[in-house]
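Q: Can I see a sequence and its folded structure?
A: Here is a first one.
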Amino acid sequence: MIIPNNPFFADISTYSPKKSIPFYERVFRWKYYKKNNYYLAFLADIEVSGLYETPEKFKQMRMPHFWMTYIKVANLNTTIDKAKQLGGIIELSYEMIGFGKVALIRDPQGAGFTIYEGDQLKNNRTKNTKNTLIWNELHVSDITKIIPFYQGIFNWEIEKNQNEVYEVLNNKGEYIADILEIQNQYKGKYEYWVCTFGIENLATSKKLILENGGNLISKENNRMLFTDNSNEAFFYIKEV
């Protein structure tokens, strides 16, 4: 069972699935299977993420390739109402028979995430499994503008630790995400949610990513930030 208000899934929007799929299959040993117009990635027989082609209207707007964080909710409409009241923007909302309800929301500083009500999407986030999603975090330029928003819609507690990182706790007191305040000169002009994927060895994965057209953005103590071969969709890798 997925705990409501927890990050639990991620997928990537790409202009060219034919180019993106081989990259991720080589880097993370995933295998993609197409269902309707959506691709599910598997690690052996375990579903680990999703992929879809960016809709044409967003291509015309030059929206970049990106990884999307999904957050489970108990009631999508109630969450949407709270988000509107607290300054969020609802980019889209829809229901698919046999799948569930989905909405794309932007917080008051513009970071986008998806909420999901239903039981068809599985919890694909693990704690320490190689080649899976292991963490989600939000990068913002001014945290004071978004704390009331996330506390209000998800009932999160947000506490600053000694390393100047804001830890996100769910209503059970479980540590589920981070928020980092980063100035635009370092993170760029956009606010965004970021996915971290577990890997066996940083040096080996770095070599694979670079050989397949990805680019290294930054290196931290125990993880690295890369773009994929689109040079736009970015993600962290971390040894587990």
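Q: Show me another, different protein.
A: A second, unrelated one:
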Amino acid sequence: MLLIILQHTPIWVFLLLAYLLYAGYLQTRPREVPLARVLILPLVMLGLSLGGLASAFGSALAFACWGGGLVIGLSLWQRRGGVSTARYLPQQRRFWLPGSRWPMLVMLLIFCSKYAVAISLARSPALAQQRDFVMTIALLYGLFSSYFAARLLLLLRLTVPARPT
């Protein structure tokens, strides 16, 4: 069964996995990143999450559960987000980011969940109409998206100068 699934998986899926592994590896190393590039990954991941949700389900219930997952996740990641030791360098308009395995882990969780959902829907398209399945997957996608959204918000907070007390 697994061999059949892999044989029917388009080549671009394996290329995407290779890219995610590479991009995730880069996230494990300390680096300086321009302000504009800090925006890219969260926006892309947010777009992919919403696009996957729309193409798989497209219902108001799915989007509501996704939003619920996003809010829950934002509250969980609000204090940490994997950037607790990051610094903003205002003269260079860049961030110094510590290395972290969290981005790779979350990207791989997103990839694996989307792959599993695609396989499940290909084998049983009726799942897209089952309320519990839709709600669970949408909530999961929202939770995953919250990591990158929270990380972006935490980094953007670093760009705001501290108020004198």
